[in-house]
Amino acid sequence: MTTKKVYIISHSHWDREWYMAYEQHHMRLVALMDDLLHLFKTNPDFHSFHLDGQTIAIDDYLEVRPEKREEVQAAITAGKLKIGPFYILQDDFLISSESNTRNMLVGLEESRKWGDPVMLGYFPDTFGNMGQAPQMMKEGGIEAAAFGRGVKPTGFNNVVINDEKYTSQFSEMWWEGADKSKIFSLLFANWYSNGNEIPVEKEAAQAFWKEKLADAEQFTSTDHILMMNGVDHQPVQMDVTDAIKVANNLYDDYEFIHSSFDEYLEAVMNDVPADLSTVSGELTSQETDGWYTLANTASARIYLKQKNTDVQRQLENITEPLATMAFDVTGEYPHDQLRYAWKLLMQNHPHDSICGCSVDEVHREMITRYDKALEVGKFLASEAVESLTASIDTSLFPTDSKPFVVFNTAGSAKTGTIETEIEWKRLPFSQGVPEELYAQLKNETLPELTVIDAKGQPVTAEILSHEVRFNYDLPKDAFRVPFMAIYVKVRVVVTDMPAVSWESLALTVGQNTTSTLPTIVSEADNRLENEFLHVKVESNGQLTVTDKTTGITYPNVLTYENVGDIANEYIFKQPEGDQAIYAHDFPATTTVAINTTKIGEITLTQTLMIPVSADETLAEEMKAVVEMRQRKAQRSKELAPFTLTTKIRLEQGSRQLKFSTHFDNQMKDHRLRVLFPTNITTDKHYAESIFEVVERPNGVSASWENPTNPQHQHSFVNVQDATHGMTVSNYGLNEYEILADNTTIALTLHRSVGELGDWGYFPTPEAQCMGEQTVAFALAFHGADDQNRTFHDGQNFQIPFTVAQTSVHNGRWAPKAAYLTIDSSAYALTALKRKEHQTEIVTRGFNLSNTAAAPLEIKISGYTPSRCTLIETPHEKPLSAILEPAEINSLLWTKSASVND
């Protein structure tokens, strides 16, 4: 008789914050760790404890018990406490490619400071699994992953598999990424609590194991059976070794052992059958009824997603590139400060944090972390800019001018508007009494001003306003210097500024140039038009947009839709029979806000009458913990005005129509979306995800019951056919849906709900997101083969220009130059940084296509490249001028031998 082996792994899935505030969970973590350290010392039979794959738990414990550091180290060294490989357990889909990367990079590095990490991609409760995980894990040296969601297991009984891409006959399977990387994967088919609270009493143990072994053997492909002894915030089972002894006495044909993932994985991977299933791409529970994909967390507390975008773009796309360039001037790079900022940011990335599905106290604390990380990023960026501008030659400008430098730190050419303030004149407090200095400057008459480039040529610019106000300098070698100054607000449109480049301009005395070109807005017929787009604002507030390149017209663009929502932070549920309310069914007014040859902006105002909330039934259903699908609540009969104010902007040289929508939300239990009909018949679409532009089907599986099909995105979603397409971009708006007509893109702008959801009743009044809200999104079009341009524009929509004033001075760097060049429209840059703790440059990016290879040439003057991994170690792959389909490409740049320091 073959003896089957049952591997019992003690663990506790530690949501750092969730249905209680962080410190409530934190104190329970301290108690758990105290118990573990005691158990390790007193029970030699206790094999080990899996610390949930996240090293931050050690930091959290030692913050309260610093005197326990040596005990923790001893437990890790002895193999009792199993740590790593990640810093936190993130939500894959709601954080950027780089945030996912840094989580692994930092986690592995910090784990190795303590000992050997568990080399398992651990995603026990991630709300879906990213399609590039196999490639990413292999780049980190990780050959296996474990997850609790995303795949439908079918068991041994020859159940028909409707879609083999997203189903497996076993709990073990191979997982293949878009680039064909493949790793071994384990599904917690009976959840990560299938061996929780094992009885010691004989009769109870018999009943427990009869059920649990049958459940596990329904899905396991080998004689190695995994039992997870723990669950969310579970205290360690102190008598688990006694329970294991009882189990061994009950069964002759099973061997029960207290074990670890290292031992289990080695055994099961050696014995898996040859016909093991392969699942591929992103795993988001496609073969289920669709209700519990939890994708609507992408629209819970959208203000968190906007703040997350603020910080990610600041660190990834502004601070790190600027600091990388500044190193060539200063020889210094803020490794420690950036690590501090990244840790603060990643502390907001667990799946119950960034998803917005916790109690209000949790999300209040998140805002503080975001603000702290953002301020660090801004400070480091300003330090880098100060060093850079001091080295850029501005000596060609008039001595009495006020030079300023514009940086494009994005990874592709960028067109957009710069509005900045230039200090024209200052009077230090050392020269007089503040109020007198203020009055003196206030009474000055400014001369006519203009903006010129380094060749002295006028640049079309607008002098918008000026004001006098207090400010101060903080010299690095002296006390603070307060002053009064005149600040002039200037607006300039920049067209096709190259990737990672700068250009010097100056504000100077002179006559501002006037253009003979027509203005963007035709006020007579509410039209905006530039070289590429013709936009008509119809009387009902919808737009008719013509792409002048293809000649195709798109009607009914910018359709606002409002419906009720009676579910929770995880899931959207429209009341039965609820009818959508559309803004175009109410009066609309327009005003022209800006109208020059460079910029046109029309302000559209629409006031809908919508219900003030759900009816009183919802409160009772929530208190009674009625599952959201069973709720009968309707929207209130009481209506109130809900005003949408949308700025519609078109700029010269831009192929992107930009929108900013503001509203003061005083309503509850509702959702607001904006619809973009494409009139393109297709069964698939594309969206930016982690290190890929993923192709997703518009339709759903036969088992899908949810009337909606919400999806995640980063900066854009695209619908196209063989001849043309539409790309909708966003800023921190991570939820979209392709409607049942298969042609309309629906972008979620706001969702108000009143409870956490899940396993009980946790009121979350702040998830109603009351008060002033502003959201930003953009629209672009393409022809048969230039969709990548709109993808780059979508990414750049989230990355502002950086502008800094400087002086007239000599410098070693040209007034206009690019730090690097990228020759590939298919390559999307995600990182330009210095190697962790070192001085080499790291560039990272990915192929915007999962199916087509593309040429790739990147150059950084004075540096020589080699391949490296996501964790910045040497790569086995050689350098190549070809970017393979779905490839994540990381390069390590070493200063060339011929270049002097």
From TrEMBL:
Belongs to the glycosyl hydrolase 38 family. The keyword Aminoacyl-tRNA synthetase does not apply. It comes from the Bacteria. PANTHER family: ALPHA-MANNOSIDASE 2C1, MANNOSYLGLYCERATE HYDROLASE. It comes from Brochothrix thermosphacta (Microbacterium thermosphactum). Coiled coil: none annotated. InterPro entries: Gal_mutarotase_sf_dom, GH38_beta-1, GH38_C, Glyco_hydro/deAcase_b/a-brl, Glyco_hydro_38_C, Glyco_hydro_38_cen, Glyco_hydro_38_cen_sf, Glyco_hydro_38_N. Keywords: Glycosidase, Hydrolase, Metal-binding. GO terms for biological process: mannose metabolic process; oligosaccharide catabolic process. GO terms for molecular function: alpha-mannosidase activity; carbohydrate binding; metal ion binding. This is Alpha-mannosidase. Residues 297-370 form the Glycoside hydrolase family 38 central domain.
